[in-house]
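User: Design a sequence. Structure:
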């Protein structure tokens, strides 16, 4: 099964179901051609153009991808049919583009150069927007930090704000998604021979045995692929938030003051690993800028927009017509059309939960509804739920398994895990619905003789039939004894009457996180708790 960032990478190319359309399926009135666009250092990037019928000039949308620009064919055709020139480009060193690939650090200048090149073409009106999700959102932020004069609007879905804190070392613990992502990128390099591609792809599809090796032993697999091994090695060489992670591309948050003030529509889901990063980008840039910022948070994983999320289905309310959403946004800012959707509210979010039951396919149906807000988070009051106290043995060779949450789009999964290294507390059945909306934080008192300990905390919605739906999971690495704060992230979930609130505490989550190397006897002291924001 694909893991962590690899699962995300596989959906990056077509988060709106735009992958895999053959050239023959493009509408006849659409002109499609490829150009090699020169960057400021002379490197040429392969760029597909989708041009509407007519002489123009036309507004332009730019997307830049490391996952093969061919995956943008359907989206390119859609926007060309609606009067835009759609520009889809392979990032430096990927597929048909020249140069050497390295994650994120070239995207600021390459993005600026591409936007300004597009604005200067005879078919262009000079009005340029950018669009894309995850890596394709992060590279938009990087370009916007360079302040391209002709950039007028952005649509950025499921992107980070600080890659170190959001992804690679969230809570100070190495993410195993990043090593596998580097492996995935190596396996899709267009210069690979078939034997090498087959060898790497087999590990990408089932990475757990590889991930159980030491970081040094793992590196041997990437040794023949210098460009990708460099990214892997740099990940482990920079375990602190140092100048490496502060580079534009990895880091957006420290450059908010430089990021061009243009309207941005942000989108994410409660089970996206970049959910809180998306929220922070919205709130911070809204505070820094004068132009309009909007935020949409749905009941989705990183591969957003569908009704299904793990074991659950949110029905038609969970589905997203992203074509219509983006067209409405860009028609307003690049053409001057009045808004159709969304409404005038800056924040639109899906409050999950509130009902029990299953659909005809046996999927859990938590229910939910779309809500709006003028700011984020909505006004709330804190409420504490106690965590269980006790002592358990932690063994890095036998880590607790990752099951659902923001990992690899697994979403809502039944947390029926009975292990001696998981402490569980369970509330009484709720006598009234409980609306938890906003950021959740745990305060955990830990003692251990080990030099460091990882603390993993889960918030779980337990249904009357016993199904235990994971809502949030957070983790941090600490030096005991300590009262640790654990950021579980943000959510919006209505715990229905009769449900129970469950809190789990353990010291590992594999393969989401690299297991702490120290064998430990861990004690969670009385008085530990999870604090949730309750909206009335």
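Assistant: Done.
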């Amino acid at each position: 099964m694909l893991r962590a960032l690899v699962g995300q990478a596989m959906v990056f190319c077509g988060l709106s179901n735009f992958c895999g359309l053959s050239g023959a399926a493009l509408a006849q009135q659409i002109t499609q051609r490829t150009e090699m666009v020169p960057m400021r250092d002379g490197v040429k990037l392969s760029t597909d153009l989708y041009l509407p019928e007519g002489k123009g000039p036309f507004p332009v949308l730019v997307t830049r991808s490391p996952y093969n620009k061919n995956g943008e064919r359907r989206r390119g055709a859609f926007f060309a049919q609606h009067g835009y020139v759609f520009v889809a480009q392979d990032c430096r060193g990927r597929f048909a583009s020249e140069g050497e690939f390295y994650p994120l650090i070239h995207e600021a200048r390459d993005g600026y150069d591409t936007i300004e090149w597009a604005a200067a073409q005879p078919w262009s009106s000079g009005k340029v927007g950018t669009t894309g999700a995850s890596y394709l959102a992060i590279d938009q932020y990087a370009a916007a930090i360079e302040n391209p004069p002709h950039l007028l609007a952005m649509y950025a879905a499921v992107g980070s704000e600080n890659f170190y804190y959001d992804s690679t070392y969230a809570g100070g613990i190495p993410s195993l998604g990043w090593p596998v992502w580097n492996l995935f990128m190596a396996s899709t390099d267009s210069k690979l021979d078939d034997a090498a591609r087959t060898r790497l792809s087999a590990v990408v599809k089932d990475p757990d045995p590889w991930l159980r090796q030491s970081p040094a032993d793992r590196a041997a697999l990437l040794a023949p692929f210098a460009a990708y091994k460099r990214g892997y090695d740099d990940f482990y060489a920079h375990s602190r938030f140092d100048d490496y992670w502060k580079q534009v591309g990895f880091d957006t948050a420290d450059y908010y003051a430089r990021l061009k003030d243009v309207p941005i529509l942000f989108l994410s889901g409660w089970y996206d690993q970049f959910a809180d990063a998306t929220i922070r980008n919205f709130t911070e840039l809204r505070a820094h800028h004068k132009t309009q910022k909007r935020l949409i948070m749905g009941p989705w994983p990183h591969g957003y927009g569908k009704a299904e999320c793990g074991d659950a289905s949110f029905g038609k309310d969970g589905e997203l017509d992203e074509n219509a959403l983006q067209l409405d946004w860009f028609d307003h800012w690049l053409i001057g059309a009045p808004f159709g959707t969304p409404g005038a509210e800056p924040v639109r979010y899906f409050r999950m939960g509130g009902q029990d039951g299953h659909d005809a396919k046996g999927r859990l149906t938590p229910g939910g509804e779309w809500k709006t807000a003028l700011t984020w988070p909505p006004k709330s009051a804190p409420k504490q739920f106690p965590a269980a106290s006790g002592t358990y043995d932690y063994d890095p060779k036998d880590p607790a398994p990752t099951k659902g949450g923001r990992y690899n789009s697994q979403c809502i999964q039944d947390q029926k895990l009975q292990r001696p290294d998981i402490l569980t507390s369970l509330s009484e059945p709720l006598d009234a619905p409980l609306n938890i909306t906003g950021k959740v934080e745990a305060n955990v008192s830990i003692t251990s003789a080990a030099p460091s300990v990882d603390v993993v905390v889960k918030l779980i919605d337990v249904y009357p039939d016993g199904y235990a739906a994971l809502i949030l999971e957070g983790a941090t690495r600490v030096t005991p004894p300590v009262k640790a704060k654990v950021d579980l992230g943000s959510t919006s979930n209505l715990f229905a009457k009769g449900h129970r609130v469950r809190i789990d505490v353990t010291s590992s989550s594999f393969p989401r996180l690299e297991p702490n190397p120290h064998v430990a006897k861990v004690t969670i002291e009385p008085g530990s708790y999870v604090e949730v924001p309750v909206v009335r």
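Residues 275-288 form the longest helix (14 residues). The two ends are 41 Å apart (CA to CA).
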